[in-house]
Each structure stands twice: as C-alpha cells, then as structure tokens.
Specification:
With 233 residues, this protein is an alpha+beta fold. It has eight helices and eleven strands. It is globular and about 55 Å long.
C-alpha cells in the first residue's frame, strides 16, 4: 500500500478576494487539524503530518496505510464542522508515493533548519521536506470539480468500506459526507468537540442555507454539484 494523501481547502478563498472573511475559517480549520493530530492520532504508529499551502492543508500518515476509513473520517469531520460554521471546504483523497527529501538540501541549510524553518536575519524560510505523486494527485484531483465535495481517487475505490456509498458528480467519484455513517468520524468529533449542542446537527439543512445565502457569489456549477450532494443525502 502506498501513502494516502488528503487535500482539503476552503472553498472560494481566491475567488471572492475578501480575505478578511476567510480568517475565521482558516483559523478554525487549523485548530481542528491540530486537535485531530494531537488528541486523536498522537502515537507514532498512526500519527499525522500536516502541511499548509495558502488556504489548503495536506494531511498524510506517518507510515503507508491500507485503511482509508481514517482519512475519510477526518475529511468528514472537517467538512461537517465547516458547514456548521457557515463556510465550506472541498476534500480530495488520493494515493501515491511520498518521499522525505530533507537529504536533498545542502549541508548548510540542513544544519541551520529547525523544524523546517531557517532564519534569514529578520526574515524566515520554511521548508516542506516531502515530495511525491500522492501530493500532486490529491491536489490535481481537487481541481477536477467545484463544490463542497469529498472526492476519492478511482484507484482507492477498492479500499472503501462496502457500507460506504459513493456517487458520481461530474468527472469525479465522491462520498456523501452529509449523510455518511462513520464510527471513526463520530469518535473524532467527540474528542475534539467534547461539548456539542444538545440539538443533533443537520448538515443537509446547513448546506442548503449556505447555498441560499451565498447564491449570488457561487458559480452555477458549484451550486449544481452541491444540490446533487443534497439530493443523494
């Protein structure tokens, strides 16, 4: 089994050009990822490595894993928390090679870097010491369709739990995170959000309201794909 890679980004960040609106979503997404990594998967055998790229994050496991229910659960939790806070995300799950390229840097950089950061006097250089097809494929997959989708690489369909229903939206295969029954996702949510409201969250209703409130700024393709998700939930 190769490494899985999960790409998740905040929808519409670059399109609206209203950066102040995306500070809370970016903060919330980073906080949720930190809690998942530190509280749910802190042990070496199942720990996570997470990298930020502008408004997106890449999540990968420490070791190759054949259990993709884990990244599906992580994506489901992040997307559900997002829509309850009135922002949307898109996730793409792929598989491929991942290599540590730290040894490719010069001896000077290798010695001076601390946790991927190098002082440049009053400036700073940050390094992302990984490279591989898993990253490229996950990012490329996310670009294939617009909308609040949890996209799964065709190569991973054989690893998806038989009880998990997939659907085709445009060019991609998706998992409906609105209605997915996933024990791992439920457990993650209990750990990182220990004081939920007494009312059971209605993710479908929240997405419907989001579409109505933002219809003037969403593309027709985004709305169409979101409605397909709602219809199948």
């Amino acid at each position: 089994m190769k490494h899985w890679a999960l790409w998740i980004d905040i929808e519409g960040f670059s399109a609206k050009n209203k950066e102040q609106l995306y500070i809370p979503p970016l903060r919330n997404l980073a906080d949720d990822l930190y809690k998942i990594g530190s509280l749910v998967y802190p042990q070496c055998k199942d720990c996570l490595y997470i990298y930020q790229f502008v408004d997106a994050f890449l999540i990968r496991p420490n070791f190759p894993e054949d259990n993709i229910e884990k990244p599906i659960a992580i994506a489901t939790v992040l997307m559900r928390l997002g829509i309850l806070r009135k922002y949307t995300t898109k996730s793409a799950l792929s598989i491929g090679e991942l290599s540590d390229i730290a040894a490719c840097y010069s001896e000077e950089i290798f010695k001076k870097q601390q946790n991927g950061c190098i002082s440049l006097g009053n400036g700073l250089m940050t390094l992302t010491p990984i490279m591989g097809t898993a990253i490229v494929k996950a990012h490329s997959l996310s670009e294939n369709e617009s909308g609040p989708l949890l996209i799964v690489d065709e190569e991973l369909k054989g690893y998806i739990n038989a009880s998990t229903t997939t659907l085709r939206i445009g060019k991609v295969t998706c998992i409906n995170w609105l209605s997915l029954n996933n024990t791992s996702a439920d457990n993650i949510l209990k750990i990182i959000n220990p004081n939920p409201t007494s009312e059971k969250p209605d993710y479908k209703k929240a997405l419907g309201e989001y579409i109505k409130e933002n219809s003037n700024e969403l593309t027709s393709n985004w709305i169409e794909n979101a409605k397909k998700l709602l219809e199948s939930a």
